[in-house]
Amino acid sequence: MELADFRENGQFHASGVYRVALLIPLCGAAGIWAPSCISSAQVAVAELNKADGIDGRKVQLIMIDAAVEAAEPIEEIVNDLIDLGAIDAIVGMHLSAIRQRLSKVVRQRIPYIYTPLYEGGETTAGLFAIGETPKEQLGPAMMFMQKRFKPRKWALIGNDYVWPRSSHDYAKSCLKQMNVDLAMECYVPFGLSNMSGLVSQLEASGADAVLVSLVGQDAVMFNRTFGRRGLHKNIVRLSTALEENGLMACGRGNLERLFSVSSYFGSISNDENAAFKERYYGMHGDTAPALNALGQSTYEGLHYLAGLIGQFGDVWQQKSTRDQLPVSYASGRNFTHSPALRRPSVYMARADGVQFCDFKLL
Asked: What are the residue boundaries of the Leucine-binding protein domain, all occurrences included (predicted)?
């Protein structure tokens, strides 16, 4: 639906529909995530609408391109939609750079649920980041890799924006704690067309392990080049954001000694995921987009939103992520901590062909 359609509409709330802006990247490096995000969100909407929806209204998704490379400024679109009363809430599965821009625009006018893993430290009132942080995810993963492979030097490679830089700051503190050297730290723009120079720099650095914090298609291009060079023989790879779609795109021959850490994988065996997968494939069929952490997060985000509104009313306007509200909500993830903290289990997985295996609870 176009902004012009909303301007002509008028009484939005009178329709009895609760409109959620689903902000996901539809183009650019992170566009590879979109099909799984949309499909997972649709399952949540169907489940909510079988019950009471949100705030007693049926839920409707308003899809908005939140890619860094999107043609229209996301702040202007979202601000106009809020001013018009055309959206009641935001569920965002996008990069942290976009979240930081939008947090200055939304200003507690509507609830904003941010779903993916992120760098931590979000304290904006009315904004709730529900994904895992480097302390929860990256720290245990690096300790696991160090213990298993005993690399003498690490390299840190990522896209040039807040999440990789903040995550790598945390990674450097882990290296210092483990008394391990940093061989290389490099940040590249989105959409780098040729990864050969970056991979050559990595090869020359003398690193035995590399933390890859590249996004979507950029991670795919890096891993393809890395694999063709045969660098897996000397360098082990760790990623905190490589999911099932990216894994398949990398290609079977380019994934040796590649590990990923996440609070969710599509093939993890637990009761929560089994129930989610049954509903997901029941709606979309066996050829549905691959289940992954980022897609599952939109499913979870919509249920978190419903739980937040249903259990806490308008309290969201004064609260934020740091308040750790004990919201009860459906998820495909397994939670092992107390309900008050509601933090997910984190798993390490190894790439095997074009799937993840050997899951280890960290």
From this structure: 19-317
